[in-house]
UniProtKB/TrEMBL annotation:
GO terms for cellular component: primosome complex. The gene is priA. The lineage of its organism: Bacteria, Pseudomonadati, Pseudomonadota, Alphaproteobacteria, Sphingomonadales. It comes from Pontixanthobacter aquaemixtae. Residues 203-369 form the Helicase ATP-binding domain. The keyword Calcium does not apply. Its EC number is 5.6.2.4. Component of the replication restart primosome. GO terms for molecular function: 3'-5' DNA helicase activity; ATP binding; DNA binding; hydrolase activity; zinc ion binding. This is Replication restart protein PriA.
Length: 721
């Protein structure tokens, strides 16, 4: 190739053409550096015919400067990038940018100096030197690290270098990862488990696209079972990606993975340090990384040789990204498996209706694990009608649940109270004038966090100190908390059970891997009696001594009328119930509700999943909602209210009239202001057969807006705020 077209990461410019200088070889997918005006930019070489752009004559082209030392993006990955951009109405460059998400890695290897013993005795021996020589047998590390290892000063080691007893070695700054071994510790699978595992292993060997829905009750051993095809891929030298919905779940997973395979997997998530990302990215691109576990952003990495994807807790909505490219990692993962021809396993005890429907229609193969492993039984579930048996005044835990908590503490068993609300109270008022503390950037109340002494907005992250006096009427010490958050429930537990050891488990308290690890160790070790937590603790964790689960407010998720409110409530409560009785002792679950007659609550109490899904399926079919119809949203925002409104009206005014496509709005969004931007929404509901993306593109592409206006398209939205 002597001229190439590049995708570049500049929102104002389309693809650009360049000349390939003599002696340089590039191919499609190569990552290169090219000049743009006085600057240098990074670009990806793309097939010219798949990337419409202005053709520039050869004589005007500038030369590519350099090909970066990373493997070219494979054709399958390029097709996935195109598919994602096309399906989600996103820019190609925005999707492509998720692939080259480690700037450091693109620069290739950097070396550093480590030291090791040469076997040469120093001419002059001192006690310190003797200690060092003894401690550093078979070690190789930096001076600093060796000094720590041997508990001597850097100076002692420098002396040994001068004496020729230690020698320098240049090594890649990114150290190799320890190797996972397929046969390190093999489990005895039950017959049910074995059957499913064998099927997965066959699929890995077949190297064909095969989507599975692993539908297994909580505690049935889904993880144990999908470890087998992972082992098969490791034996076959193919890479595996395990997607988890939250970083907090990674910690529990890592321990189990290491027990099974003798080494930790490679971790990928957006909160990592740049150096960790570089190391992981390079190992992924070279094929050295055997198994990668990560949040959704791990999906777009340039795996050299992927042979299996597992999406665990596949029903979780956090697989949907709600800013930037609004993609659903679960769905794109299936496409990746299809383009690259390997199996994918979507694992869940409460699959999304969409996934069940795909199984129903024969697209996914459904495999079931109908019972808990090792004879553990599913917990008994009962509702507590808060209207008839309310808690004491000013409290949130009903007497029946209080009794159960006391009983567990007496027996030395664990309890878990679930409330999906961080902080102390969701709303704070002035007792004198009724002033409500609201976020200055969002249409949202500020949430009191009593432990960190902050009022916080859960939408934009804004925080302020609780004021000494009401900003409106000036009354001192005026704040009253309305409603409960987990911190308030924890306070209540402390009053009821003064001797109990209580842990709050939320994204505020478990915000680093170390804290999660600590929490897991304490809970497993029996150092916690009562866990009070948000949805963070509803899944993934396995605490054998946990025998009681209390759902503080099952009605919470049903408010607000979200399309998936009932399904989400079902999933959350069923998942958190699934934490009870996983060991040898049976579990018990209490669901506090004001509406025990609601179909979803009744189905939970009866343990009748099929009834719930059947009713929900019919409701969705009737409403033309997914999976039977399709939704898309258009979100218009600006810092200027009038500008946002006018842009929304301009879009509304040019709405196309297309058969089978219904367009609602524009209307102010329920979250009318977010992060200082005013927001309007349109909602599109279409038959499955409608080419909704084409309709939207044709509609919006012709419109022009002021610079401050953002127009975002959300295909298959999960958030309606
Ligand atoms: P799930 O993901 O379906 O909720 P897990 O994979 O967490 O279930 O399994 C529940 C518990 O049972 C875990 O502690 C797991 O180690 C154990 N377990 C499951 N299957 C086996 C097996 N075949 N041998 C030993 N332990 C098992
Ligand atoms: Zn805010």
């Amino acid at each position: 190739m002597n001229r190439v077209r590049l995708i570049i990461f500049n929102a104002a410019l389309g693809p650009l053409d360049y000349k390939v200088p003599d002696g340089m070889t590039v191919e499609h997918g190569s990552v290169v550096v090219a000049p743009l005006g006085p600057r240098q930019i990074i670009g990806i070489v793309w097939e010219e015919d798949r990337l419409p752009g202005e053709s520039v004559s050869d004589s005007k082209l500038r030369n590519i400067i350099e090909v970066l030392p990373v493997p070219p993006l494979r054709a399958e990955l390029r097709r996935l990038i195109e598919w994602t951009a096309d399906y989600y109405c996103a820019r190609l460059m925005s999707v492509a940018r998720m692939v080259v998400s480690s700037g450091g890695a693109l620069r290739g290897p950097t070396t550093m100096t480590e030291y090791r013993l040469t076997g040469v005795e120093p001419e002059r021996m001192t006690p310190q030197r003797a200690v060092a020589l003894d401690a550093l047998q078979n070690e190789q590390a930096t001076i600093r690290e060796l000094a720590d290892l041997a508990s001597v000063s850097d100076g002692v080691l420098r002396g040994l270098v001068n004496q020729g007893a230690l020698e320098p070695v240049e090594v890649d700054i990114d150290r190799p990862y320890p190797r996972a071994r397929a046969d390190h510790e093999q489990p005895d699978l039950s017959d049910d488990q074995r059957k499913v595992a064998d099927q997965f292993v066959e699929a890995v060997k077949a190297r064909e696209f095969a989507p599975f829905l692993l539908d297994g009750v909580t505690g049935s051993g889904k993880t144990e079972v999908y470890f087998e095809p992972i082992a098969a891929a490791i034996r076959d030298n193919r890479q595996v990606l395990v997607l988890l919905p939250e970083i907090a779940l990674t910690e529990a997973f890592l321990g189990r993975f290491e027990d099974r395979f003798g080494a930790a997997p490679v971790v990928w998530h957006s909160g990592q340090k740049a150096t960790e990302r570089r190391r992981a990215w390079r190992a992924i691109a070279s094929g050295e990384a055997q198994v990668v576990v990560g949040a959704r952003s791990a999906l777009f990495l340039p795996y050299a040789n992927l042979g299996l994807i597992v999406v665990d807790e596949a029903h979780e909505i956090s697989f949907k990204q709600d800013d930037g490219v609004r993609y659903n990692a679960r769905d794109v993962a299936v496409m990746r498996a299809r383009f690259e021809k390997f199996p994918i396993i979507l694992a869940s005890a409460t699959p999304a209706l969409e996934s069940l429907q795909m199984a129903e229609s024969g697209v996914y193969q459904r495999v079931e694990l109908p019972s808990r492993f090792g004879g553990a039984t599913l917990p008994d579930i009962a509702t507590i009608n808060l209207t008839e048996n309310p808690p004491e005044r000013g409290r949130w835990i009903a007497p029946e649940l209080v009794e159960a908590l006391e009983d567990r503490l007496a027996k030395g068993e664990q309890s878990l109270l679930f409330l999906n609300r961080r902080g102390y109270a969701p709303l704070t008022l002035c007792r004198n004038c009724g002033y409500r503390f609201q976020c200055s950037n969002c249409s949202a109340w500020l949430v009191e966090h009593r432990f960190s002494r902050r009022l916080a907005c859960h939408h934009c992250g804004h925080e302020e100190e609780p004021p000494a006096a009401c900003p409106d009427c000036g009354e001192k010490d005026c704040m009253v908390a309305c409603g409960p958050g987990v911190e308030r429930i924890a306070d209540e537990v402390a009053e009821i059970l003064p001797d109990a050891r209580i842990a709050i488990a939320t994204s505020d308290t478990l915000n680093t891997r170390e804290k999660v690890a600590d929490f897991v160790a304490q809970a497993e070790g029996g150092a916690i009696d009562v866990i009070v937590g948000t949805q963070l603790v509803t899944k993934g964790f396995h605490f054998p001594e946990l025998t009681l689960v209390g759902v503080i407010d099952a009605d919470l998720g049903l408010e607000g009328g979200d399309l998936r409110a009932a399904e989400r409530t079902y999933q959350q409560v069923a998942q958190v119930a699934g934490r009870a009785g996983r060991g040898s002792k049976p579990g018990e679950v209490f669901i506090q509700t004001r509406h025990p007659e609601e179909p979803v609550i009744a189905a939970l109490e009866a343990g009748d999943r099929d009834a719930f899904y059947a009713a929900e399926t019919e409701a969705r079919r009737g409403a033309g909602a997914p999976p039977f119809g399709r939704w898309a949203a258009i979100i218009i925002s600006s810092e200027d209210e009038a500008e946002a409104r006018e842009a929304a009206n301009a879009i509304g005014g040019t709405r196309p009239n297309v058969k089978d496509v219904m367009i609602l709005g524009p209307a102010p969004a329920p979250m009318a202001m977010l992060r200082g931007r005013y927001r309007y929404r349109l909602l599109i509901n279409a038959r499955r057969s409608a080419q909704i993306q084409d309709v939207i593109r044709g509609w919006l592409d012709g419109l022009d807006f002021p610079r401050g206006v953002r127009v975002n398209v959300d295909i298959d939205p999960y958030s309606f705020v």
